[in-house]
């Protein structure tokens, strides 16, 4: 039975380019409930109990510990994202952190020299709750030399929960770390840990020629307070890295979130995407969905139109209708004329029909035809006579040979 209810709802007041909080809350509740049901059913039907399902007493399904499954926001745009600045890795601050665990293991990848960053993390003014989480600080040159093999990169990947990277080297990590990082949710999150030069309160732009030098990143690092603030901001953000395509996925929550927490994160990420990452903002968004790792996508917003700018839409007028009708009539007339000049042969191929000729041409054609018929009749007659002569010659030769045989025997 097909439901007549709408898939998504739009706001009744204000701009249509905004989320309906009720729709986001309903989708979040249904998705989290479905993920939890899936995990409970999987534990019940498993032939071998896993660690999360080992309970001595017969507890209810509500008491069964569940996996912390990721929840994603799926973005679909009307046009490809092609701006290189928007395709760089970025982050959007969210109200409910995805990295709130106190036992979180963080790996910080920095520009050379790494010793300067290690000293910053070990500084007394650096927050202790961040120092305890940062288990590894590694420079870019050592990262390239130590983790060349796939097995070593996979081991690094499994040892830490979150990877932060200096924004000056973030684009070079794609080739260095490889697909094991960039096909997962552990893509490095950019952080700004370099000191920013300011004159009269304004940021000083660096010379492009200086940036292209091999040791361009060997500049001074920011103070421990600024570095700590940037790391804290990165841990409380959703990582964003768009592809040059029309679809992208951003992790916005986990299965242990409440529906309200997930809804608030979704709204914050959508606002950040439309403000910073997507060209033309809301007008370039085709659809927004939320989904789990192994669930179907649930729509929370669908565009009513498929164009980006109003200028892309051409209003159809009466003149356009006449022009279209005239083009159809011309095409039909040409097809009819082409059909009269052609006929279908028995083999299925089209052969052209002979064109009409006048009286003089008809008289010359008939005379030529009659002449050809006479030549053909004469050729046939000559052929028959030559055939009779050829048949008579072997008979005479045979008679002569017989007479010679008789004389020799006598």
What this model shows, in words?
The structure is a single chain. With 410 residues, the protein is α/β, with parallel strands linked by helices. Among the domains are: 16-44 and 63-99 and 237-303, Ribosomal protein L1/L10, rRNA-binding domain (Ribulose 1,5 Bisphosphate Carboxylase/Oxygenase, 2-Layer Sandwich), CATH 3.30.190; 100-235, 3-Layer(aba) Sandwich (Rossmann fold), CATH 3.40.50.790. It is built from 13 helices and 14 strands. The strands form five sheets. It has a four-stranded antiparallel beta sheet. A four-stranded parallel beta sheet has the order 4-3-5-6. Strand 7 (198-199) and strand 8 (202-203) form a beta hairpin. It is elongated. The chain starts with 20 loop residues before the first helix and ends with a helix.
Characteristics:
alpha/beta; Ribulose 1,5 Bisphosphate Carboxylase/Oxygenase; Rossmann fold; four-stranded antiparallel β-sheet; 43% helix; Ribosomal_uL1_3-a/b-sand; ribonucleoprotein
C-alpha end-to-end distance: 117 Å
Q: What is the ordering of alpha helices and beta strands?
A: HEHEEHHEHHEHHEEEHHEEHEEHEEH
Which outline best applies?
elongated
Low-confidence stretches: 52-65, 211-218
Largest sheet: 4 strands, antiparallel
Radius of gyration over C-alpha positions, nearest whole angstrom: 42 Å
CATH homologous superfamily of the domain at 100-235, by name?
A: Ribosomal protein L1/L10, domain II
Strand content: 15-25%
Mean pLDDT figure = 79
DSSP summary, beta strand count: 14
């Amino acid at each position: 039975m097909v439901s007549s209810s709408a898939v998504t709802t739009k706001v009744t007041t204000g701009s249509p380019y905004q989320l309906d909080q009720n729709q986001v809350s309903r989708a979040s509740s249904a998705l989290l409930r479905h993920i939890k049901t899936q995990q409970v059913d999987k534990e019940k039907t498993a032939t071998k109990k896993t660690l999360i399902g080992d309970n001595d007493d017969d507890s209810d399904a509500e008491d069964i510990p569940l996996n912390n499954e990721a929840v994603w926001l799926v973005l679909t745009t009307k046009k490809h994202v092609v701006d290189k600045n928007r395709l760089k890795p970025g982050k959007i601050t969210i109200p409910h952190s995805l990295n709130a665990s106190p036992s979180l293991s963080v790996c910080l990848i920095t520009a050379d020299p790494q010793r300067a960053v290690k000293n910053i993390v070990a500084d007394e003014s650096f927050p202790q709750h961040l120092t305890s989480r940062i288990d590894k600080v590694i420079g870019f040159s050592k990262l390239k030399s130590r983790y060349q093999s796939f097995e070593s990169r996979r081991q690094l990947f499994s040892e830490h929960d979150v990877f932060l990277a200096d924004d000056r080297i973030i684009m070079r990590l794609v080739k260095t770390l490889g697909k094991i990082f960039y096909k997962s949710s552990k893509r490095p999150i950019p952080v700004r840990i370099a000191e920013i030069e300011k004159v009269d309160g304004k940021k000083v732009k660096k010379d492009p020629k200086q940036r292209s030098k091999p040791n361009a990143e060997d500049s001074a690092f920011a103070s421990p307070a600024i570095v700590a603030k940037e790391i804290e901001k990165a841990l409380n953000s959703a990582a964003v890295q768009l592809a040059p395509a029309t679809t992208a996925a951003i992790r916005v929550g986990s299965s242990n979130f409440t529906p309200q927490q997930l809804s608030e994160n979704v709204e914050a990420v959508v606002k950040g995407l439309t403000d910073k990452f997507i060209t033309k903002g809301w007008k370039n968004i085709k659809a927004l969905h939320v989904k789990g790792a192994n669930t179907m996508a649930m729509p929370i917003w669908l565009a009513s139109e498929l164009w980006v700018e109003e200028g892309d839409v051409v209003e159809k007028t009466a003149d356009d209708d006449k022009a279209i009708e005239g083009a159809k009539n011309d095409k039909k007339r040409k097809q009819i004329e082409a059909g009269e000049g052609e006929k279908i042969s028995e083999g299925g191929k089209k052969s052209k029909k002979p064109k009409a000729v006048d009286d003089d041409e008809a008289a010359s054609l008939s005379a030529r035809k009659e002449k050809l018929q006479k030549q053909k009749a004469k050729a046939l007659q000559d052929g028959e006579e030559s055939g009779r002569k050829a048949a008579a010659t072997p008979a005479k030769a045979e008679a002569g040979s017989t007479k010679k045989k008789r004389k020799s025997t006598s």
